[in-house]
Every structure is written in structure tokens, then in C-alpha cells.
Amino acid sequence: MKNNKIVYLAVATALGSLSTTAHSAGFQLAETSATGLGRAFAGEAAMADNASAQFRNPALLSYLADTQVSAGGIYVNPNVDIDGENSQHGQTSTNDVAHDAVIPNFYFAHQIDDRFTAGLALATNFGMETELGNDFTGTQFGNEAAVTTFEINPNIAWKTTEQLRLGAGIRYVLGEGSIGAQANTMAANNSIPAGSTLKYMEGDDRAWGWQLGAVYDINDKHRIGISYRSEVDLTLDGHAEGKSFDQVAGKILKQPTKSTYGGSMDLTLPATAELSSLHQLTEQWAVHTSINWTEWSSFDKLEADIPYLNGAQEVKVENWEDNYRLAIGTTYQWDQKITLRSGIAYDTSAVSDKNRTLTIPETDRTWLSVGAGYDVTPKLTLDAAFTYIFAKDAPVKEARDGINSESEQNAEALFGKFEGETTGNVWLVGVQASYRF
Q1: Is the terminal CB of the chain with fewer CB neighbours within 10 Å at N or C?
Q2: What are the structural domain ranges in the chain?
Q3: Which of 222, 226, 286, 282 is nearest to 38 (CA)?
Q4: Which residues contact 251 (CB under 8 A, 6 or more apart)?
């Protein structure tokens, strides 16, 4: 994989954490601020707490006065296990397939005049990493997968009237990814040695996207916000290797095999939309809600385009579906310095039971969040939040029934079929500092 000159701020979070954590489904992240984490990211398209608001809805910049900076990070501690049976080798399991990670962020906002406010966000909206243990006898279907992205996101907001505010932004996304499968540890009985790489592909790319947002104040106590982020099409340019590609070169194309094959793999970061509301019930109490949609149906399969092998080679069939997230949260103004937050959310899975895979054990999840903000001075605010996520136990089976995948069928024939269950939970802790100049 090529070394990017720009350091990726986004740390690739383990797959289990991404699909069961603070955010949306699949490998989408919602860990954009500790402020939002405290209310389970409810009302994000309508809440203008600090400069971090622009990443979810650029129109919210118009509520921020003067110049503001926010920076922080969220620590993710996932616990994801897979347990089941290999049809040839019996019981097998792998624990903690997700790694701990810290997801950092930085936001800047500047009020140009009474109508216009500009901002810059440095954060990430997608990322994942999963690695199955070497002793697990399901690695023939996939032993690791990773996506890392870093986003540079300049935004502008326009206060069109006292009630309506509009916003737009440009997204420059740097991404890299990898996916692989290897012969399981019981493969000594086969012609392929145990631990051999069956298929591996990695690459990186940079691409552009955009976002739009609007906020409407119904009155001084009720507000609605809506935002849309475009899909971003990455072509991960890098290399591939493994015995599956060697077989194509040697047996089918009658060409010499190589240690690595130059190529690329298309990866679409899906479009997203959010509809949020803010309701100030009393001077102290407020309630906020969100409905999120992600176009995960754009993630249907992964193919490696390898010129030496005359074009596209199957890497993984995914068959994902659009998903939704529902959240409701509260804010309580304890006194002039302390703000308390809480929230609950429900994330639907981006895959059906039929299409769930070992490398992406995606499932429904429920969040419980609490948080607090403290005004150290009139200009400096510190925020902290804690979230616990319950992941729904879910079945996982590979090779999958009814899936037209030659690689899965070959893996089953050589190394056995896996059938079992994925279980897990996630802890998240976030901190953030915001300063107003």
C-alpha cells in the first residue's frame, strides 16, 4: 500500500466496534464529538453546541458567534466474539476480534458577518478493522478487513432569514483499505498449507464529496434540521496476492504466477441523510430526536481489478441493505456552568441474517448514553460522555446459502463450512474542549 503523506487522524476501529458502536451501521462512524456522544447523537442535525456541529449539518455554523475551536477524542473498547462449528473440524471460536481505538477530531468556526459563517472539520465518518485469530477455523472465508478514512471538510453557512439557515460543504476524503482470507489451521490435510494466504487485496485513494444542510426555527422553542452527505467513490489502488489469484494466472490464463499483482478495488462510502428536531420544553429541559438513513445498498460486492489477470476478480460478495437509526436524547441545564445529557438510540443492521459475514459480523444494537458539559470560564467548555452499547446476538454462516460466490463455495469444499453466532458489546468514553475567542 502506498504511504500517504498526510497523517490519518482517523484510527481504524475494529469492525465489531463499528458495527455495534457509537454511530451507524456497517463501517460508518458516528463518533464525531463528545458533546453528541452524551445524548447518543440524538438531534445532531439541529443542535449547535459548538464548532463540531458543522460535521453533521453545515447550516448549524450560523448559530455560532465569533470564532470557536473544538477538539477531542473518543475511546472505543469493543468486545466482539464469534463462536460456532466447522463442518470438517468441529467447534471453533475467536474472541475480541475488534481492537481498542481512539477516534480524534478537530473543528474550527469563524463568523464572517451577521449572515455568513465559515468552518473547517477534520474528522472521519467511516472506518473499521477486524482480525480473526489464527486458531479460528473459519478464516477461509475471511481473516481480516480494514477501512481507514480521514476527511478534510470546509463548510459555509448562510442565515437567509431569522428562521431559515442553509449550509454546504466540500469533502476531501483520504481512504485506504484491505481485506483478506487464509487457509485455516486445520488445512494440513489439504494440498494448501495451513495459514496460506488465499486472497488479499489492499490499496488507497483520495476522492471528493459534498454535503448540504438546512435548519428551520419554528419558533424560539422548536427547531428542525436536515442534512445530506453524498456518497464518495474510492478506487483503492494497490496490490493483490494469494493462491486464488495464482490459480487464475496458472490454470486459467496459462501465465506465470507472481508474488503480487498490481490492481485496484472500488469501494463506495455510502450517502447518508439525517432529520433532527430540538424542543426546548422549559428553561432547563430540552428534548432532541434524530432519524438517520444510510444507503448501504450501494455496498454490494468487492472486486479486484487486476490487469495481469485480465480484469475483475471476486473478493467478497456483500449484498448490504439501507439501514436506519432512531435516537432520542435530553439536555438538562443544571446551573449556569453545568449541562447534563442523556440519550438512547437503536441502530438497525445493514445486513440480513442470510448475508452476515465473519469479517463484518453486523447486527442490530442499542445505545445508552450519558454526558456532561462544564463551563470552566465564559470562553472555555469541557465535555465528557460515556456510552454502553448492547449488540444483538446474531447468527452467522459461511458459505452462505443462495449466494452466488465461487470463492465461498471453493473455501467450503476445501476447508469446511462455518455456522455459529456473533455476540458483543461496546464501551465508549469521550472528552472534548471548546474555546470561544
Answers
A1: C
A2: 15-436
A3: 286
A4: none
